[in-house]
């Protein structure tokens, strides 16, 4: 399994979970964040630009599934704020650090889970990860699972969402970025156990 280990000498590890829309990223992330020590989370969905700044393509669809629809600079700044001071970041995001009476220390292991559908196509972000996971489900399952409170306009999935997913996946693979592929057809428990164990082995056992 590729993925880069914790940076030598660093008390921290950052760990994304990813990637196809409705693949189970949020479900997996929520479980990891509850289980891992000193763990914060950044959701890429929080960095979508406002509706009126999203371009309409030649295909007539709002172009949500491209990097331009996201404020990636703000996202990277948020991740950098965590890297600079994970204890401060955790406190300002309401995360309990080092349960017990001991004062939190910068030498404790801190983990940031970064969750999103377009994490590995933006170089300034890619470089910040210690471990990279890529959660994928096949076309039929993805289409079946995709349901939002405001439903997609007719044709959006086939006309924009899935083609952009394939395009970005190819771009990522061509760029040679190391990811651990996760089979999103596995059960929620299987996925959680696989990733939790991997993080434990790579980030926690070696600290
Ligand atoms: N391993 C799984 N097996 C089957 N369904 C799942 C699994 N993980 C998540 N789901 C369901 O798929 C849908 C999308 O999950 P979600 O975690 O919101 O995906 P994402 O954050 O990738 O868009 C939800 O209805 C969720 O309950
Ligand atoms: O339709 C919208 O208003 C809208 C606004 C923001 C995001 N989205 C969708 O959100 C998807 C990414 O989020 P996720 O959690 O499903 O991976 C992406 O496929 C977009 O099409 C859709």
Automatic annotation (TrEMBL):
Position of the signal peptide: none
Q: Which UniProt keywords apply?
A: ATP-binding, Kinase, Magnesium, Metal-binding, Nucleotide-binding, Pyridine nucleotide biosynthesis, Transferase
Taxonomic lineage of this organism? Eukaryota, Metazoa, Chordata, Craniata, Vertebrata
* Region (Disordered) location: 1-23
Among the entry's GO cellular component annotations, what is one? cytosol
Name the source organism.
Chloebia gouldiae
Q: Which reaction does it catalyse?
A: beta-D-ribosylnicotinate + ATP = nicotinate beta-D-ribonucleotide + ADP + H(+); beta-nicotinamide D-riboside + ATP = beta-nicotinamide D-ribonucleotide + ADP + H(+)
Say which family it is in.
Belongs to the uridine kinase family. NRK subfamily.
Low complexity composition bias: which ranges?
Answer: 1-17
The answer to whether the entry has keyword NAD is no
Q: Name one GO biological process term.
A: NAD+ metabolic process
Concerning SUPFAM superfamilies, the annotation shows: P-loop containing nucleoside triphosphate hydrolases
Q: Is Cell cycle a UniProt keyword of this protein?
A: no
Q: Name one GO molecular function term.
A: ATP binding
Name recorded for this polypeptide: Phosphoribulokinase/uridine kinase domain-containing protein
Pathway field of the UniProt record reads:
Cofactor biosynthesis; NAD(+) biosynthesis
